[in-house]
Amino acid sequence: MIHLRLGECKVSLDQGELVSFKHLEHEFIHQKGSPGWRSADTEMFPIIGPVNEANFRVEVPEGTAIQDQHGLLRELDYVLEDKSDVHVVFSKTYVAGTKVKNSKFPAKSTEEWLSWPYSFSFTKRFDLTENQLEISFSISGVVGMPFMLGYHPAFKIHTDTPIILASGKEITLDEVLAVGSRALQVEDCELITLKDKRNIHIKTEGFGHFMCWTEVRNMVCIEPISFYPYAVAQKNLHEGFLELSDQETVFKTILKV
Predict the structure, then answer these.
(1) Has UniProt tagged this entry with the keyword Transmembrane helix (predicted)?
(2) Could you tell me the CATH number of the domain that includes residue 26?
(3) Please, which residues have CB within 8 angstroms of residue 212's CB and are 6 or more apart in sequence?
């Protein structure tokens, strides 16, 4: 476990996963083991969303990729690259065509092994400044590599009637629950405020959109995404791809209290 601290802010990280963000001892992050989700955060890459209806296949220029829900990045382990009292850097690397064990097999998937026909490097960096935590994602790889990116943090809810404020519109927890597993789309938005016992602001750079998901009342996932996967049929997921350039591609999520 790695701990960062600055003033009244405290952060705890477990192998690259954000498992705690506290300000004045108020916990903003969903706690693993609590009802709702087994994780606290994860990344969705190189695809977002389910692919079971497409036989777990995604067509890309270099061939057919075998992917499961939200891609294969989360099946890889982070390597610690650098750390201090207020920042930490983790990385993952993948070599094109390498078979990755699918943790959803066999209980929730027919695919034991996942693969992607491109090599890439993925860096996750945490920077703690006064009253905010910046999480940045840097991606590099083959020019033209298609990809989607989503960040999937879960926030702890402390009251019965939290409000998600996005683009001047109020979204209730009941509205998110009603959408179910598809997740509620919040299009063309770079700032969301979760209004609860304490408010937290989720600001992004590069993603462009959010989706919100929960199946319980004690947590809600507010997820920055580059593409809402339910906008198209699973067989057409390729329509939502971005492409890597010859420069490192950077996305940011800032949690401000």
Answers:
(1) no
(2) 2.70.98.10
(3) 164, 171, 176, 183, 184, 186, 220, 221, 222, 223
